[in-house]
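Lab notebook: predicted structure, single chain.

Context: the supervisor wants predicted structures on file for every construct in the current expression panel, including those that have not yet been purified. This is the next one on the list. No modifications to the sequence; it matches the entry in the shared construct table.
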Amino acid sequence: MRSPTGMGDYGATMALLKPEARILIVGAPTNRHSPVSWHPDRDDLSGSPGARRGDAESGCVRWLGTAAHLATLARLLPVVLPLGSSMRLPASFAVAVVCCAAGLHAIPVARGDSPPRPSGHPGPAAAKLGTEGATGDGVVVLRAPAGDQVLLRAGVFVMGSSDEEFTTARTLCQLEARQADCRDEWFAAEQAAHAVYLSDYWFDRREVTVARYRPCVAAGVCVAPPYAEGAERFDRPELPVVLVSWNDARRFCAWAGGRLPTEAEWERAARGLGDPAKGVPGRRFPWGNVYNPFLSNHGAFAVDELDGRDGFLELAPVGSFPDGRTPEGIEDLAGNAEEWVADWFAPEYPRADAVNPKGPDMGDRRVVRGGGYPHGSAWLRGAAREKEGPGERAPWLGFRCARDGG
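Prediction complete. Output recorded below exactly as produced.
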């Protein structure tokens, strides 16, 4: 089972190791966009504890310890990684700090042995989790947790709902307590299914949290959500930031070096590619085609919209439903916080195929996606579309960021 920090992937390996077994942890390489200093001939952080400053022949720092040290590391990382993320520090820096605290020893690695930095994009190298193998002297090698964004490769996917998907949406609505109130026009904006080509892009693994949003407020760039007006319970660092307008979301993503995802990018992340050759859309929900009320933080289409069967009446900490993530590891694309995207809303899609669509040039409402904790199953589908005025603030309305992959 994988923990929110990624350390849970080490659990299976840990179970097979004795406490005195030696462990080698490879720090994730950084990039020249890191707020910590970066040397063109190095992959390590020159500010990392144990790194050798100015040594052009050193690569990333590796950390040597025992399985017992790793147990300490597993307890510290869930605390330090979110704090480092909120301070805009790369994961490798947080890993370095925690490795020192856990008692591991830093080993500078020759440049030729360091993991290669990917070409063609500025994002972090994809870190392979789990056991990497053993060295000649019996040291087990584990790699650092993956980054906070997922790279979705260029390709064609089927966007929108087919007639079958439209019927499914209506059926899901009619299974709710307020079935008599269901209206076909609520789902008409999803039609028609059409092929869309998207270039490479990076997509946040999780919704932006309160902890991640606070530094933007402290910097004077972002507007603080009005939690003090009776919503103090939502002002917790592990929760998705809500009560933010579209402009708040756009401003934060720009400050963080990205942008809001387009509606097409969001749907491709939630549904996958489908079968463009046959015009068949991808999966219905982020986890698959069958609705499961225990895989997301959802509500109900009822007089009382709150549904505690999933363990939460209102917002849940991000990443609380690991079994509901997409195959690429993207969390909470159904429920918890509904999410702003970049596009103006149009009541129907263009029927022609499209390349990197960005929606209408103007409008009066922005698209929101994914449904939130008060929404029923029909609105948690990857194809479901809703809209809000750009100034709207709601306790179930948040966002995540994206950035170009080129």
